[in-house]
Amino acid sequence: MRQVCSFSELYQAEYFLQVINGLKQTLRERGAFSCIGEPKKYNMFLYLHNCTGRYVLQDGREIVAENESFVYTSQGSQYSVKFQPVDPSLESYNDGINFLIWDSQQQPLFFSEEEVVVIHPSNPEHYRMLFSEISEHCRLSVQSPARLQSIFYGLLSDLSYSYRREAIRSKQFHVIEKGILYLEEDKEQNLSIPDIAALCNVSEIYFRRLFKEYAGMSPVEYKLHTRLSRARQYLTSENFSIREVAELSGFEDPAYFCRVFKEKTGFTPREYRAQNLTAMPESPTPSEI
Fold first, then answer.
1. For 48-88, what is each residue's pLDDT tens digit?
2. Which fold has domain 3-163?
3. Distance of alpha carbon 199 from alpha carbon 105, whole angstroms
4. With 207 labelled, which of 49, 136, 152, 248 sits at a CA distance of 20 to 30 A?
């Protein structure tokens, strides 16, 4: 069964990724593609420039990707696709990124149960530049894997943040949007729960009730959750001492931090660091899109 993490959930998830390659292809080079009978080895994002794509799945379903959208196809997917230019007088091409992604338990991660998902970014120019930067870097004779991953982490972070904001605004939680974003994003967390409720112009009781519906936990529990999540990220690096990790995560007392971390995760901070400073699973040899 797939381990699925939607784009909105990805904003708070811990994950690791590897960019396999990036490639720019014009429609003259490849206007059609099929992997039916040969499941894809990697996940892929494909950005469509001055063209549309018509995907056909194994069961016959068709999915149309519009111009200036990008498409997620998952590892193991099978489909055929044909691209058509929008303006024949202009160059039509695709920027693709093959990648692998794992969750914090080093299990393969997927963004959807569907094999093909079309994404319509609100600011396509921003993502077009990121896709182009990756494909152009992959054309260099000497490449930096760290640079590629840095750009791609930024792309996923921006995408997940936009989905997260959209999810908050489109549901009944929009009235406490400011409070949700404060608890998710403010590193200092100096405001009390009554102060956060006032920020949303609602009563403290209403804020607590609605927030628990949103997060599945109380605002106080969520504060602790975000601090521990931040601590786990810092612990995956050897650059910070345990005391520094506690301070950076919002814990004034390192002893209290260690006690709470053990209580909530089952590991001491040192044990957690030792388990997570391990190499990621080996990936197959890179191949073209």
1. 999 999 999 999 999 999 999 999 999 999 999 999 999 99
2. Jelly Rolls (2.60.120)
3. 37
4. 248
Tokens of 75: 């590892």
Phi, psi of 287 (to 5 degrees): -140, 170
The residue with greater pLDDT, 189 or 45, is: 45
CATH homologous superfamily for the domain 169-276: Homeodomain-like (1.10.10.60)
Contact 42, 17 (CB under 8 A): no
How many angstroms from the chain centroid is the CA of residue 132? 19
CB-based contact 18:280 (threshold 8 Å) = yes
CA-to-CA separations, 44 to 32, 38, 40, 70, 72, in angstroms, rounded: 16, 15, 9, 10, 6
Q: What's the mean pLDDT when you consider all of the chain?
A: 88
Token pair, residue 260, equals 């709470």
Where do the structural domains in the chain lie, given as residue ranges? Answer: 3-163, 169-276
Judged by DSSP in three states, 92 sits in: coil
Distances (CA, A) of 186 to 12, 13, 262, 276: 14, 17, 24, 26
Amino acid at residue number 183: L
Cβ neighbour number for residue 49 with a 10 Å cutoff? 22
Tens-digit pLDDT profile for residues 82-108: 999 999 999 999 999 999 999 888 899
User: Can you give the three-state secondary structure of 4-46, one letter per residue?
Assistant: ECCHHHHCCCCEEEEEEEEEEEECCCCCEEECCCCCCCCEEEE
* Rounded Cα–Cα distance for residues 23 and 95 (Å): 6
